[in-house]
Amino acid sequence: MSKCLYFIFLLAILPLNLRSQDGYDLWLQYYPIEEATLRENYSTQIQGLITYGSGATLDAAVSELEKAYAGFFDASIPTAISIKENSLVLGTRDNLPAYVLPSLEGEFTKINSEGYIIKKIRIGNTPATVITAETEAGLLYGTFRFIKEMQLRNAIDKISITDSPKIQIRVLNHWDNLDRTVERGYAGFSIWDWHHLPELIKPEYIDYARANASIGINGTVLTNVNASSVVLTSAYIEKVKALADVFRSYGIKVYLTARFSSPMESGDLETADPFDPEVKQWWKDKADEIYAEIPDFGGFLVKANSEGQPGPNNYGRSHVDGANMLAEAVAPHNGIVMWRAFVYSEHDPDDRAKQAYSEFVPFDGQFHDNVLVQVKNGPIDFQPREPFHPMFGAMPDTPLMMEFQITQEYLGFSSHLVYLPKMFEEVLDEDTYVQGEGSTVAKVIDGTLSNKKLTGIAGVANIGTAKNWTGHPFGQANWYGFGRLAWDPYIDSEEIAEDWLKMTFSKDKDFVDEVSEMMLDSREAVVNYMTPLGLHHIMDTGHHYGPGPWVGNLDRPEWNPVYYHRADSLGVGFDRTTTGSNALAQYAEPLREKYNSIETTPEQYLLWFHHVPWDYEMKNGKTLWHNMAAKYQQGVEEVEDMVKTWNEMEEYVDEERFATTQMLLQIQLKEAKWWRDAVLLYFKQFSEMELPEFVPTPEHDLEYYQSLEFPYAPGISPSWH
Ligand code: BDP
């Protein structure tokens, strides 16, 4: 056999999931169903597809079914013109024939406007599977769910599923600049090819929309929160419209970031004062202009008076004044404003962790109905672990939306395998106690705690032009998992990991068991090798890559790592109790009391809330210093375990993704050691205690680690220059 023929032969016998692939297809891979009985069973259940209604979203659903069917069965999906035995029936409630509805009695009461029903019913004597919903978007979600059931190889002959999203606005935030750099982006450049828009519609746009729709994401903020007013010019609105036209079929609305000074920059006004009638009019006109092109435009996301961005404070006005002015401009078009609470000032001597709360909580109840205040999960900034942001629960009369960061700015960029849904889940499950026990963050976000009409959740995207979208093959799991938790903030991150692995790599039980465990453990590993025991913000400056606890020379005090760890000869950690900044006062009881004492503070938050003596005896009877060293060492060992686990997975994974992940894990291991050695050597100067013998002697001295520079580390956008 010639070499070439041999290769073709090899390809033909290799199960599809083992064929080399670049990861572009994400979790939407529709491999042939090889299990004979299942194949037979599924095809019996899908005798003829019949659709009721018309529209681009229904077309998108049908096209996805066609794609999936072709992948599963290597054949075209059979169609029907009337319902017959085992038809697959697709239509919204309004479009289904009246004689189908009695069999769905009661089901529609279980879903909301974006929910779906998938049910095997009998219409007269004819069995059929119906996918239905109140809206076309619901229908599309139901279709993806139906396909997923087959991807997971679940039985569909008695299928009966109803599901609805628990949060309304489920958006990605792209920190993408118009020059296609991505702030804190580690997966290449922006996928928005502004220069060629509106004419060139890339297949990636459609696949991006499919991927999002498959997990229920219904909005995308196209531009960086450090915004350019250029996107609000007419030429760019045309480009945005082209993207909106693609995404609309997939139930996805577009949003833009609004630079507060735009009336002066893309308009010719002399002020951006929100009380100025001309400014108000400018924004109204701008909104009208956008909505004339994009009737379902979602609205604006605004970063104002934060890290140098302009805002209402420049004119002596408040965040409420600014947000409400924009809200009035988009309200006639049913648009919303997502106003970020990520504010802190170098002129405020108070603990940075307290500032957003201090600034926003007094405004509770004053924002217009179409404003959501967007709050990061923790009070500082997307650290590997933070306690939940005390604003959650503290503004019962204001809709608060969650902002998670999917891109791993502080968690190893796209070089480290860190499964974020585990972290998202931890935050969502935290009890704020604001209305007694059980007042979880999830209940604040989904609006059930204070009966909110408008609810939302945002994830800062980790998507770029990398062939596999996210750089690290496992970065896809974080995009996927964000979507799943946005849809339902109560699902288990383990279930999400398993679903993702099965759809992305292999359904083999041994593989799924081992690798899902590795993913779930990866979150604690990164905390251990970067910032254990409540340490935070000790990364290097600017690019935020690698350790930098020694940095203390930046102009803004609260940008210096030394501001956060406060290490001295007595101890380490930030005293946020009543004897310190009293940030604790922003939490409800019993948290306040519990965290006020070192003894009752969970060790994972110890140095977040306390300045602790180096020789303080911890629960295990060993000193703080010993425990800190042990955590760093444990983090490294956990990555060693990840390496071992992955090395055993070769038989289940295609060569390309196997090798890429393997090499990236080596980087992660090297960097975990780097973090351990650099941070411990640095703190050792203060503790004046020896490293416990279980920590290997660092490869270099502290000066070496301090001398490292990374001038071209990715993710720094021009907005920081
Ligand atoms: C920080 C990032 C910075 C963002 C900022 C924000 O370092 O690039 O602009 O958050 O969220 O984490 O506005």
UniProtKB/TrEMBL annotation:
Alphabetized SUPFAM superfamilies for the sequence: (Trans)glycosidases, beta-N-acetylhexosaminidase-like domain
Alphabetically ordered keywords of this record: Carbohydrate metabolism, Glycosidase, Hydrolase, Polysaccharide degradation, Xylan degradation
Coiled-coil segments: none
Enzyme Commission designation: 3.2.1.131
InterPro entries: A-glucoronidase_C_sf, GH, Glyco_hydro_67_aGlcAse, Glyco_hydro_67_aGlcAse_N, Glyco_hydro_67_C, Glyco_hydro_67_cat, Hex-like_dom2
Highest rank taxon of the organism: Bacteria
Pfam families: Glyco_hydro_67C, Glyco_hydro_67M, Glyco_hydro_67N
UniProt GO cellular component terms: extracellular region
Domain spans labelled Alpha glucuronidase N-terminal: 26-146
Domain Glycosyl hydrolase family 67 catalytic: 150-469
Positions of the catalytic residues: E307, D381, E409
GO molecular function: alpha-glucuronidase activity; xylan alpha-1,2-glucuronosidase activity
Gene Ontology BP annotations: xylan catabolic process
Keyword flag Hydrolase: yes
Catalyzed chemical reaction(s): Hydrolysis of (1->2)-alpha-D-(4-O-methyl)glucuronosyl links in the main chain of hardwood xylans
Domain Glycosyl hydrolase family 67 C-terminal positions: 470-692
Subunit structure: Homodimer.
Recorded family membership: Belongs to the glycosyl hydrolase 67 family.
Protein name as catalogued: Xylan alpha-1,2-glucuronidase
